[in-house]
């Protein structure tokens, strides 16, 4: 700034021509501009291009210096400005490059002696603040009315910034359908001491320099000049015109305009050269085809010239002679109009010619391929009519997911494309297996008791999930499909690549090959197994024939007989290997098997390739869910598969409920594909498992609701999550049904199981609800439903030894039941939708108050759920009595059993206090005092806490750094933008700027959504792939 001030002061005290001659001498350019035919010398091929390039660069720099001297007058004393206008100009030119955040803008602006920029006082006058979204920062955008103050040759621009600013401003003008010219802005008047500076622009030497460069451009010699040089000359001419226009507009009687730039550029050169005037050369360049980018600027100059001419005429300050420019300007307008018309006509004819050629090619192709074209039309018409037929059938009927009124839907052919070999294949039971990349992980997202851990995974029985959902197994997928053999080759290649690495170069990557992890070949999403694609498994052996439909009591009796027969046959097999065979024959020799029951039948439904993939995914779910070594023969494998299906559906239902979205219609494609494949897999896994073991699981699950003499030590009704029980019962029931040839439909079993579990869940809600009567208005206190609920509640009170609190209001109980059972019904609707393929009715694809009634209709339930107890009164009285007589139920009702809560404790002062965002525990991170030994290795407090709170995954807020930390295991982690923003929509990681921070609810919800969707591990993988420095951090010490 001081250098510019001294230059301005020196030039203002010198003769302009003398100053310019000194500059030509200093830049060693005098010889060039004093030689008339300099430009013509470089037509020959032996020209030294390096010398010419050097000369061009010197000319460009000299012109830039002149622009700086004349144009930089925003310093108090040089121009008639104040400090506020100076900072405004700085902000305008920074925002001309791109919209900027508050912190970026502060760094880019110059500071005064007090280390302040003064931005706050003027920013609202020149910029609009755009609030941040879920990502990014709040940005300041330049107001449209301030773009006229943009100066392409702003002296604080670097070359890169100048180029970006020019491109941004031209793009903005194109969007607004304006000329792309970037004229110099109107500058403030110079102070009296520096008023003579502008005479440089109309000095003889300056006019000679301008005329010479324009002459080179007219001659179109590619060596003697550059476009940058011409752009600077046009900018200087524009500056001179703006000055003259400003002088004329501010003219009064006392002043005389001495700045006559327009008159001087209208005069042709003197003899002997007789060169054309600057104005004439501009008219010539306006139509030059090689200067398309500068045409708008030249037009602006000519337009401004005419405006100044009119101003002079109106003011009559000095007569403006009729020059050749006036005549040329009139002629150029007509010429320009004719040229544009001619080009438009040429373009129209060319378009017509191309369209005619394309039409001819289409006709020629159709003539050559008549048969193929006709066949395609027929197939299209057939498929369209088929779709219309199906849609009309489905839309005209009431959609029901199960039961006698189950909607029959014809399954369409599913043809998919492998992302690795690009080969298409139909999904069929006897074809090669197609698979989806998937990621299975342990999860505590829905946990209500984070202190509960599996002590001995080898002996743990996962058959019954506790309602606390302390730890589940979640499955996610990116939705990309491969052939099973293509995936196997790809995974083998990834393993071989890792093994070829030298040990000394091996570092932690975003995926762990030893644990079966890999990146999806297409989207690089973290995966650790694959889910096989299957056709609807129920369609393979299920007949929707409800002609011989037994009621619930008859069905329970039949199933109990079949279970008893299975127990007998299993005992017979055991006894045949022992010495008790004689005693066994004496005891059970007269047992007759139920009608149509053939326990010797073994199903075989899938190809070997699909069976292999069923085993692969089942083993992976078992290994990850229990944290044990893979063992495909373990009897718990099918249980873990059913549990993963149920838990994944529960998490998605919870996400949709939290976001207040309808149950259907708003799932992303990848989640929809994942649920479809996962449900079909879980429904088919029993076919590759030991049939007797799956039958044994069903017998124990069924005994938790319908006790028998061999039920043994089973959990009480309060210790079972009913949706997990429903999924496990429905998916294990085909192991019993496949040996039943009595003609009863599989759908009958699904319906009775669902009704039975629903009634158990209602009893569970009534036993555990803390409903209190209050003074709220009751809609229908004496309605049929309310009376039925009250009757059931009194029945429960009778069989629990009066441990239940007396209630006189059935309305409150009804509200409690509907609120408690709603998540179960929503999960059940998702489950049966993906299991049976029945489309969801439009009523539950939108949110509304009547969701309960529509869900009941879709699931074959009466709107009054207590009707289930009334329709099956005798059998249900027996079952409810058995449920309530359990000692654990009585202990709970008597208050002897309390729920365990997640502890929330504050810690001491520490260097790095860290808050767990999942459970609220305050931890001491990165401190040796709080290190813990985990699996034989010292780890930090956060890493140790993830294994207790989040099954190895955690989200933490580093309080003093205002930084969110994601961890997954011991070797993977990343930092994430915190949900705290300042007033300018920016985060302040490290608290360096010190601005007050406020919680942004939208960003907090985004972090919460990542946790609910089990996307933390995926987010870490993407972050580590994008930033390799994250791989080298010792995350286990945090």
Automatic annotation (TrEMBL):
<dbReference type="Pfam" id="PF22960">
    <property type="entry name" value="WHD_UBR1"/>
</dbReference>
<feature type="domain" description="E3 ubiquitin-protein ligase UBR-like C-terminal">
    <location>
        <begin position="620"/>
        <end position="892"/>
    </location>
</feature>
<keyword id="KW-0863">Zinc-finger</keyword>
<keyword id="KW-0479">Metal-binding</keyword>
<dbReference type="InterPro" id="IPR036390">
    <property type="entry name" value="WH_DNA-bd_sf"/>
</dbReference>
<feature type="compositionally biased region" description="Basic and acidic residues">
    <location>
        <begin position="330"/>
        <end position="342"/>
    </location>
</feature>
<feature type="domain" description="E3 ubiquitin-protein ligase UBR1-like winged-helix">
    <location>
        <begin position="87"/>
        <end position="183"/>
    </location>
</feature>
<dbReference type="Pfam" id="PF18995">
    <property type="entry name" value="PRT6_C"/>
</dbReference>
<dbReference type="GO" id="GO:0000151">
    <property type="term" value="C:ubiquitin ligase complex"/>
</dbReference>
<dbReference type="GO" id="GO:0005737">
    <property type="term" value="C:cytoplasm"/>
</dbReference>
<dbReference type="GO" id="GO:0016567">
    <property type="term" value="P:protein ubiquitination"/>
</dbReference>
<dbReference type="InterPro" id="IPR039164">
    <property type="entry name" value="UBR1-like"/>
</dbReference>
<keyword id="KW-0808">Transferase</keyword>
<feature type="compositionally biased region" description="Low complexity">
    <location>
        <begin position="314"/>
        <end position="324"/>
    </location>
</feature>
<dbReference type="GO" id="GO:0061630">
    <property type="term" value="F:ubiquitin protein ligase activity"/>
</dbReference>
<feature type="domain" description="E3 ubiquitin-protein ligase UBR-like C-terminal">
    <location>
        <begin position="899"/>
        <end position="1013"/>
    </location>
</feature>
<comment type="pathway">
    <text>Protein modification; protein ubiquitination.</text>
</comment>
<comment type="similarity">
    <text>Belongs to the E3 ubiquitin-protein ligase UBR1-like family.</text>
</comment>
<dbReference type="GO" id="GO:0071596">
    <property type="term" value="P:ubiquitin-dependent protein catabolic process via the N-end rule pathway"/>
</dbReference>
<keyword id="KW-0833">Ubl conjugation pathway</keyword>
<protein>
    <recommendedName>
        <fullName>E3 ubiquitin-protein ligase</fullName>
        <ecNumber>2.3.2.27</ecNumber>
    </recommendedName>
</protein>
<comment type="function">
    <text>Ubiquitin ligase protein which is a component of the N-end rule pathway. Recognizes and binds to proteins bearing specific N-terminal residues that are destabilizing according to the N-end rule, leading to their ubiquitination and subsequent degradation.</text>
</comment>
<dbReference type="InterPro" id="IPR042065">
    <property type="entry name" value="E3_ELL-like"/>
</dbReference>
<dbReference type="InterPro" id="IPR044046">
    <property type="entry name" value="E3_ligase_UBR-like_C"/>
</dbReference>
<dbReference type="InterPro" id="IPR055194">
    <property type="entry name" value="UBR1-like_WH"/>
</dbReference>
<feature type="region of interest" description="Disordered">
    <location>
        <begin position="313"/>
        <end position="342"/>
    </location>
</feature>
<dbReference type="GO" id="GO:0008270">
    <property type="term" value="F:zinc ion binding"/>
</dbReference>
<keyword id="KW-0862">Zinc</keyword>
């Amino acid at each position: 700034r001081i250098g510019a001030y001294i230059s301005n002061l020196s030039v203002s005290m010198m003769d302009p021509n003398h100053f310019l001659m000194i500059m030509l001498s200093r830049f060693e350019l005098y010889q060039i501009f004093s030689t008339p035919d300099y430009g013509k010398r470089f037509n020959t091929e032996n020209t030294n291009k390096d010398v010419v390039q050097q000369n061009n660069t010197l000319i460009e720099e000299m012109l830039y210096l002149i622009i700086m001297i004349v144009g930089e007058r925003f310093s108090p004393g040089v121009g008639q400005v104040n400090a506020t206008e100076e900072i405004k100009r700085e902000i305008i030119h920074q925002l001309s490059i791109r919209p900027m955040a508050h912190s970026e803008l502060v760094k880019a602006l110059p500071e005064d002696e007090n280390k302040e920029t003064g931005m706050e006082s003027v920013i609202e006058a020149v910029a609009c603040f755009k609030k941040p979204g879920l990502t990014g920062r709040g940005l300041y955008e330049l107001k449209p009315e301030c773009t006229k103050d943009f100066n392409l040759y702003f002296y604080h621009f670097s070359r890169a910034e100048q180029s970006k600013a020019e491109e941004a401003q031209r793009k903005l003008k194109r969007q607004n359908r304006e000329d792309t010219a970037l004229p110099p802005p109107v500058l403030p008047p110079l102070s009296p001491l520096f008023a003579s500076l502008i005479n440089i622009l109309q000095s003889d030497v300056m006019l000679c320099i301008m005329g010479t460069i324009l002459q080179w451009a007219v001659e179109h010699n590619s060596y003697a000049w550059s476009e940058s040089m011409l752009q600077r000359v046009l900018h200087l001419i524009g500056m001179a015109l703006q000055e003259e226009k400003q002088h004329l507009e501010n003219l009064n009687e006392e002043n005389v305009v001495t700045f006559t730039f327009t008159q001087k550029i209208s005069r042709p050169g003197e003899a002997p050269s007789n060169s054309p005037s600057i104005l004439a050369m501009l008219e010539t360049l306006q139509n030059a085809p090689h200067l398309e980018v500068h045409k708008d600027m030249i037009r602006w100059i000519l337009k401004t010239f005419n405006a100044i001419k009119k101003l002079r005429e109106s003011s009559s300050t000095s007569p403006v002679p009729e020059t050749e420019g006036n005549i040329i300007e009139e002629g150029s307008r007509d010429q320009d109009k004719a040229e544009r018309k001619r080009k438009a006509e040429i373009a129209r004819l060319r378009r017509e010619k191309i369209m005619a050629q394309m039409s001819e090619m289409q006709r020629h192709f159709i003539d050559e391929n008549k048969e193929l074209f006709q066949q395609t039309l027929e197939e299209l018409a057939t498929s369209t009519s088929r779709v219309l037929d199906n849609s009309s059938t489905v839309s005209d009927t009431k959609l029901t997911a199960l039961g006698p009124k189950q909607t029959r839907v014809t399954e369409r052919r599913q043809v998919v494309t492998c992302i690795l070999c690009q080969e298409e294949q139909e999904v069929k039971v006897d074809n090669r297996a197609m698979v989806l990349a998937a990621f299975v992980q342990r999860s505590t997202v829905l946990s209500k008791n984070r202190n509960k851990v599996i002590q001995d995974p080898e002996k743990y029985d996962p058959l019954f999930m506790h309602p606390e959902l302390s730890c589940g197994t979640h499955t996610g997928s990116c939705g990309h499909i491969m052939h099973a053999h293509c995936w196997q080759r790809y995974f083998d290649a990834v393993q071989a690549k890792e093994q070829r690495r030298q040990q000394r170069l091996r570092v932690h990557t975003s995926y762990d090959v030893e644990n079966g992890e890999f990146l999806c070949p297409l989207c690089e999403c973290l995966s650790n197994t694959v889910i096989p694609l299957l056709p609807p498994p129920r369609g393979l052996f299920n007949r929707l024939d409800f002609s011989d439909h037994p009621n619930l009591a008859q069905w329970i009796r039949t199933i109990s007989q079949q279970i008893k027969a299975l127990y007998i046959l299993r005992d017979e097999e055991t006894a045949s290997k022992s010495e008790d065979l004689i005693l066994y024959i004496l005891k059970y020799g007269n047992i007759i098997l139920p009608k149509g029951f053939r326990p010797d039948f073994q199903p075989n439904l899938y190809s070997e390739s699909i069976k292999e993939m069923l085993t692969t995914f089942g083993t992976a779910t078992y290994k990850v869910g229990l944290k044990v070594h893979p063992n495909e023969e373990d009897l718990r494998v099918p249980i873990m598969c059913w549990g993963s299906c149920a838990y994944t559906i529960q998490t998605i239902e919870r996400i949709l409920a939290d976001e207040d979205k309808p149950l259907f219609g708003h799932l992303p494609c990848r989640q929809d594909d994942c649920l479809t494949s996962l449900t079909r897999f879980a429904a088919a896994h029993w076919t590759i498992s030991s049939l007797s073991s799956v039958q044994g699981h069903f017998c124990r699950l069924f005994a938790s609701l319908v006790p028998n003499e061999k039920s043994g030590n089973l959990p009480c009704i309060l210790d079972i999550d009913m949706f997990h029980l429903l999924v496990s019962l429905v998916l294990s029931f085909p192991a019993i049904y496949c040996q039943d040839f009595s003609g009863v439909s599989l759908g009958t079993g699904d319906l009775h199981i669902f009704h039975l579990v629903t009634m158990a869940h209602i009893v569970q809600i009534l036993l555990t609800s803390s409903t209190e009567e209050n003074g709220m208005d009751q809609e229908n206190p004496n309605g049929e439903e309310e009376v039925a609920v009250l009757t059931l509640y009194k029945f429960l009170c009778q069989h629990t030894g009066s441990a239940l609190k007396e209630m006189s209001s059935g309305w409150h109980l009804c509200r409690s039941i509907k609120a408690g059972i709603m998540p179960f019904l929503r999960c059940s609707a998702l489950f049966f939708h993906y299991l049976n393929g029945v489309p969801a009715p439009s009523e539950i694809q939108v949110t509304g108050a009547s969701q309960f009634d529509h869900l009941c209709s879709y699931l074959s339930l009466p709107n009054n759920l207590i009707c289930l107890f009334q329709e099956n009164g005798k059998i249900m009285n027996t079952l409810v009595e058995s449920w309530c007589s359990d000692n654990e139920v009585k202990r709970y009702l008597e208050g002897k059993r309390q729920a365990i809560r997640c502890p929330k404790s504050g810690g001491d002062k520490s260097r790095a206090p860290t808050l767990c965002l999942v459970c609220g525990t305050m931890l001491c991170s990165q401190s040796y005092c709080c290190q813990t030994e985990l699996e034989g290795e010292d780890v930090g407090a956060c890493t140790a806490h993830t294994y207790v709170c989040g099954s190895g995954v955690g989200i933490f807020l580093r309080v003093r750094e205002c930084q969110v930390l994601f961890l997954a295991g011991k070797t993977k982690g990343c930092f994430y933008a915190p949900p705290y923003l300042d007033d300018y929509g920016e985060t302040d990681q490290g608290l360096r700027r010190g601005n007050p921070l406020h919680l942004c609810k939208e960003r907090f919800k985004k972090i919460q959504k990542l946790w609910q969707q089990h996307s933390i591990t995926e987010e870490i993988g993407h972050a580590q792939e994008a930033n390799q420095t994250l791989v080298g951090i010792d995350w286990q010490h945090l």
